Amino acid sequence: MRRDLCDGVGIARLLNATLVLPKFEVAAYWNESSGFADVFDVEYFIRQMNGFVKVVKELPSEIASKEPFRVDCSKRRGQFDYIESVLPSLLEHNYISITPAMSQRRDRYPLYAKAALCQACYSALRLARSLKKKASKLLEAIPKPFLSLHLRFEPDMVAYSQCEYSGLSSASINAIEAARGDRKPWTGELARIWRKRGRCPLTPNETAFILQALSIPTNTNIYLAAGDGLMELEGLTSVYTNVVTKSSLLTGEDFTSMHGNTKAALDYHVSINSDSYVATYFGNMDKMVAAMRALKGLYKTLFLSRRAFAEFTSQGFSGKDLMRALWKSHRDNYVMGIGSALPDCFCELTL
């Protein structure tokens, strides 16, 4: 959500367009109905973007009743794609809606567009006052020092990966099957190739094993930054016993009634302020957290290597031999800046 919003700011600056505060997609399985103002401080965002991009809360009355002309930006990559292909639609229709662009080349933007995008990402987006109060309360309640662990092993995540796992409980298997839809798991040689490419999410048990291989003590205070549907959690908590979650630290009706976006915002706030951050899947949140932590000078950030785990286990490594191989692999990656808190970032040029 943060990534798409920052991209929208960059695109608006490229097109010299006014940005209307976006409406979030509704996801029934996340119990989702929150809006921009439920998560972010609207007035602060508009003030901070002044001089970069004009932002308005609502559409002008003369076009508010019209449906926007929809432009698919999912394949667009750089500055000239937008100017040559999207700008004509904006000039013709005056009001367009763009889809998120997963494959943008933000590093190729002109400096004025980079400046707007980075201002949005690192300065203009702050939590709404009520949500910031909850986030601060949560951060204060976590035993210190602590590691924030972003663990991804929810049914929809596993179904999307098209991976199969042995040894899961019947409840987990049923949940995954219900989430699969048309995405059938890979089988045979294709399944082995897929797993060796690091495409399969780490289970909580595998995560605990890698943490031990990296000599992270089992009495470490761990904040679990994860959704409500996490499966097989006992694989982690049976080894690392000091694990806390937002639901265990925050109680009351105001928390139970929170939606997916606002809960994710709590995890984000805790993660960018934690003593260390470990992610099991290099997703959008992980990239945003790593970049923000690097900006704040917090470099104890690590992404666990699914590829290394799959490669070594396929070669028959186990026990202490597997632990030694994983330790060396992660050490070498970290030294080379792979899987660490140093993502490619151009924002230092413009902040």
From TrEMBL:
Its main location: membrane. It comes from Carya illinoinensis. It is found in: Membrane. GO terms for cellular component: cytoplasm; membrane. Pathway: Glycan metabolism. One of its GO terms (molecular function) is glycosyltransferase activity. Keywords: Carbohydrate metabolism, Fucose metabolism, Glycoprotein, Glycosyltransferase, Membrane, Signal-anchor, Transferase, Transmembrane, Transmembrane helix. The keyword Endoplasmic reticulum does not apply. InterPro entries: FucosylTrfase_pln (IPR024709), GDP-Fuc_O-FucTrfase (IPR019378). Belongs to the glycosyltransferase GT106 family. GO terms for biological process: fucose metabolic process. The lineage of its organism: Eukaryota, Viridiplantae, Streptophyta, Embryophyta, Tracheophyta. This is O-fucosyltransferase family protein. It holds the Pfam family O-FucT. It is a single-pass type II membrane protein.
